[in-house]
Design brief:
Blueprint lengths: L3 H32 L3 H13 L15 H17 L1 H12 L5 H39 L11 H18 L2 H10 L5 H6 L1 H15 L4 H25 L5 H6 L7 H18 L1
Length: 274
């Protein structure tokens, strides 16, 4: 009986995982079906920051035969996933929650919600503030006589890269809190690493943004500020619980009276054995 119970439990977990995944996929597909008629409008909304800064007569082009169809579909699918993300996260939470302790449940659920909101805030920051700066700069530096016409597929890849860069950047406070709560790093160490984080933020900004200085700063400065916000939040939430028993059980040398009692006890034990 003991040999079959673990396998049955593993199979039941696989069945539940499949059910949760199917529900999440069905939710995304249903939202995608609803958004399918508006796929062109969604792409036009995504392309608005670039179209607004193109010179007079400038336009976007499609270099492949199937690109005008598939690119709006990709945008609609991405939008469907973002809309159904709360339900997808609920399915993930429902699967992992039974295996968590009570204090872990109290920590994980707020972090899931916060990470989702922060990722969406990062995307909104990129769309409303960063894109106009980048595309305005690119249009202004184009040489005279050069027609600025971007391929719609390459434009989609470009904006998705920036969405991911800024979305992950806004996850820094969640990562800092998790590292502190898990006891991987202390708050003092995080403060000591501040100069390295600032330099690393500008290096990341140089890698993931166009070569203009403004867009690099617009990625590096929020990354640094969010790192500081994560430290503040970690301090407010308190140190990990594992530190308390270590401090209580710390070594303390015996005083003279305690030492005499220990020696007397050893002598009495020796007399009994003799």
């Amino acid at each position: 009986m003991s040999t079959t119970e673990p396998s049955e439990t593993f199979i039941s977990h696989l069945i539940e995982l499949r059910a949760r995944l199917m529900r999440a996929i069905i939710a995304v597909v249903l939202v995608f079906i609803c958004l399918f008629p508006f796929a062109k409008d969604l792409y036009a909304l995504l392309a608005h920051p670039l179209l607004e800064h193109l010179p007079k007569g400038g336009q976007m082009i499609a270099t492949d035969v199937t690109t005008p169809f598939f690119v709006p579909m990709k945008v609609a699918m991405m939008t469907a996933f973002l809309i159904s993300l709360p339900y997808v996260l609920y399915q993930v939470w429902s699967f992992v929650a039974p295996g968590l302790y009570t204090h872990e449940k109290r920590l994980v659920w707020p972090l899931l919600v916060a990470s989702t909101v922060l990722f969406l805030c990062g995307m909104a920051f990129a769309y409303f503030l960063v894109f106009p700066v980048i595309f305005g700069f690119m249009s202004s530096v184009a040489p005279a006589g050069v027609a600025v016409m971007t391929d719609i597929n390459k434009y989609l890849d470009f904006v998705l890269t920036l969405f991911m860069a800024f979305g992950i950047t806004f996850e820094v406070p969640v990562a800092v809190i998790l590292l502190v709560k898990m006891g991987v790093v202390s708050i003092d160490k995080l403060r000591e690493a501040r100069p390295y984080v600032i330099v690393g933020a500008f290096i990341i900004g140089a890698i993931f943004t166009p070569p203009d200085m403004v867009s690099q700063i617009m990625l590096a400065v929020p990354l640094w500020l969010l790192y500081e916000a994560g430290i503040i939040a970690a301090v407010m939430m308190g140190r990990p619980a594992v530190e308390e028993p270590v401090q209580e059980n710390a070594y303390r040398p015996l005083d003279e009276s305690e030492m005499e009692r220990e020696l007397d006890a050893i002598e009495e034990e020796q007399k009994k054995t003799e």
